[in-house]
Amino acid sequence: MKVIFISDIHGIKTNLELIKPIIDDCDKLVVLGDLYYIGPRNKINNDYDILYIQEFLTNYKDKLICMRGNCDSEVDIKISDFVINEGISYLNLDNNDIYITHGDFYNSNYNKIKENSILIYGHEHIPYIKNIDNKHFICVGSISIPRNNKATYLIYENNRFNLYNIDGDVEDSLIIY
Predict the structure, then answer these.
(1) Reduced to 3 DSSP states, what percent helix, strand and coil does the chain have, rounded to the nearest 5?
(2) CA Rg, the chain, in Å?
(3) pTM over 0.90
């Protein structure tokens, strides 16, 4: 199974068109929250288009798993034509225990996941892969408002996680044995 993980769209459509061919090639699209609202610290730019984001994600609702972020409101959930999950969810990919969340509460400081499992999240807008006490923590960064340099996304396939920047370059990897 091939899965793409993105986070922190914040209503900005710019990079979604760039990764659309990648999404089309994946079995699942996991969005880790902060779908529409740009947040109080970010400037609205010309590519801010909530209706575009809603339609884009709705087009993938048959393969979409979506988590609620700290900037997602009740109104956002009501207008969306797909399920937006609260808190933390569980996936099993190729017998790997994977937890997904937005990252504002559950992140690399959360030690309650079991050994050799993986917690994947966004929220921080800075991508990284960490191993702490035999637990893997992956922050996918932001597809729209990166705080490091370039927008990023994560792809899982065949027991391997690759963290890519928007140019398609691998920033980091995790192989699960």
Answers:
(1) 15, 35, 50
(2) 15
(3) yes
